[in-house]
Amino acid sequence: MNESLTGIEKLLAVMKQLRAPGGCPWDREQTLHSLKPCLLEETYELLDAIDKNDVALHREELGDVLLQVVFQCAIREEEQLFSFDDVAQTLADKLIRRHPHVFGEASANTSQEVLKNWEAIKQTEKADNQKHSALDGVPHALPALLKAQRVQAKASRVGFDWQDASGAIEKIEEELNELHKAVQEGHPKEIEEETGDLLFSVVNYCRFIHVDAESALSSSTQKFARRFREVERLAKERNLEMKACTLAELDALWDEVKRQHETPQAL
Quick check: helix, strand or coil at residue 254? Predict the structure, then answer.
């Protein structure tokens, strides 16, 4: 391997050799569809590295995600459809086109103005603007909370939004009352629908108070898991069988765990 190559040149050369006749049997067998789970897994591992604030791991996981991009580009290049360089060029051109306040004469003084301009430019790029929705571009496979955030944000960019957070919090109260009513009336389909409406409203309020709903729920779930494991540890130390404990006894253990960890980095 030519050591004078840049990092990206070396990576592309390695991938080409892996896919070539006489290369790696596994790499040669992969298709775009077989690589989909790999991309998803590597993305979650990258997010985990970011949360851990581990610089070395972050660099490694970024490389693993980049591998998935390079891998798919190699397959498309073999099909004579496009190359990695084509992807990079397309991305660079799109960034320039969608940042006229940086590369052109337009102005945008706030992030919100940037996002509105971005959405407007996207719409002009479509061949038949009348047949497209402002919600286009939200992947169907996104996790539900993240998908709700993306849909709400896109709707907001074309003016479909509350004036401020008060409207969003009132909507939560309204949906909670409707859920209570559905539960009292005992209609399973309505209960599910109203539960979804309530969750959607909570996500919307999170957007107004600048909280990422996906991250917030993930953090709360991790906090619960840490506290629960501590409760299990205490129960084991005291020879208590959790299944035999009353709810009051378990609550007492839970409160004890909370008191032990009431610090800025509390469990």
Answer: helix
